[in-house]
Amino acid sequence: MADGQSTHPGATRARVAELTEQLAVAASHEARSRLARRDAAAFAARLERSLPDALDPLIRLYGAEHDVPALARRLVSTLLDAVGSRSDELLELDHRREIGPDWFLDQSMVGYVCYVDRFAGTLAGVRGRLDYLRELGVTYLHLMPLLASRDGPDDGGYAVTDYRAVDPRLGTMADLEELATALRNSRISLCLDVVVNHTASEHAWARRAAEGDETYRAYYRTFDSRALPDAYEASLPEVFPDTAPGNFTYAEELDAWVWTTFHDYQWDLDYSNPDVFAAMLAEMLHLANRGVEVLRLDAVPFTWKRLGTDCQNQPEAHWLLQAWRALVRIAAPAVIFKAEAIVPPGQLVQYLGAHVRQRAECELAYHNQLMVMGWSAVAARDVRLPTRALERMRPPPPGTGWVTYVRCHDDIGWAVDDADAAAVGLDGFAHRGFLNAFYAGEHPGSFARGERFQDDPATGDARISGTAAALAGITQALEAGDDTLLDQAIRRLLVLYAVCFGWGGLPLIYMGDELALGNEQSWRTDPAACGDNRWLHRPWMDWQAAARRHDVDAVEGRVHAGFRHLAAARRRTPALHGAARTRPLWTDDTGVLAWRRDHPRVGPMLGLANVADEDRSVDAGVLADVSLPAAVDALDGDAPVDVTGGRIPVARLSARWLVEG
Description:
By secondary structure, the chain is of the alpha/beta class.
């Protein structure tokens, strides 16, 4: 296939305006004939407002080789079809979200992430557990991949065979719609994965390609010889070098080499073909009309390929996002995008639209750096590296925000920049090695019980698997029967989550963390999982443990109470609304992470998190620095801050959220 290098400089404003006017007039007439009067008027207004934001990137992507006006007319027809089949409930939600487009940044938002089967068996089972989620304060539920995927190895569900069908072991699409409705009635927004970079080799598009249909063969990046694949490989990294080396696979059914970034059964789509862009838009809108409110776009940095690069984070990947974002906003404005972009910090904020000229892309992106630096801080009992690394992060543009988290379904890769490490007197390579050894339980004095993932002795590179409870020391303390260690470990887990909940953005709870569930060992004998130790931290929900969540003497009760407290405190702290910006602060104590939030209406907030095993304090002058002369602690029932000897005390492994009194 061609390299996809864009040669045109982009559309002129005049061309975009002319095409918008033509399409808006035609679409307005068609909308009036197909939709209710109010819906037709709303569609026409959204089309006129947002279509230019789609046309500009589409012309950049396809204008040199394809008929963009014809493509645009086809896309507008897809949008009209989607609006015409959208339920009255969802249309009403669209109207509400247009009035309050920053709903996902509200301080009441708390997310929960789980696998359907491991949490409740089926989608109907999840519906039966909504009381549990409400009690925890959850307002956003991310269900890990649940669409139909291939039999056998399926990359944890990311090898999708049908975007319009649910894995039959979990239920049906009707079950998904019923769950989405029940969640919406409980004021919980549903997030689902859409794998945009590839499909399974068993997907209908791939099967049509294998049968000789040239239209669908053009959906994928295929090569008749190894010449171009070898040229690409010269600059391509390997995602899974141990289990899936290389980026190309010979497919006998195609008699060709196919691009397979992740696994040999996941075929990369070719977005230089506008038909692929249009097809994926239709899949997104189908899910939106099932009641999905947040589309997590998986592997989006990989969507565009360019010879001589690592084929990640290319400009065209952002143009694809910009066009999808604008078009989905026209048909389903209640829906937002979340970027699954685990990329270097300097490249992350672009997925929120922060370019030389701001362009709407995703509303949410994962703050991977905050997670990495949290674990670094509690291992080293030192916040200098986190402060340095986090202060260099560019803020998200207005109307967007971070997804903050302590743990997720993936391994932890130590994204420690060598320059950041050197700035605080560390060697980046050595510190990454320390973190791997520490969290694998190999370092003297380690409290962790994790395991190395993709360990490469030649380079020293590795990542870490393990549940949050295992990495924070709860497993070790329980094994030792040591109440002092257990208290420290519980506090360590909760202080990490206090940073996650108090940083701003949308915090996520990974299933089981609220009960301190330990490593899941059954993966070792599971044929579908035994080659991937990340299943170590994807436990089955222990509902017997959950039944102890109100027992104040049980580990589960102590931890669950801590999570409920964080969620309640967050709800009543307006400074944690995503409209505020977060900046780390340097203090005179290297064991206390400090950050400030500056909300334009409600004033500042000072966050303090002591990652050390003993009580610490910081100079009270920091209150004046953030304009908090009379502060109270929002995490302590708005109790006045006790300043003793000119210092603010912060108890061991604890956090404080200080706001105006």
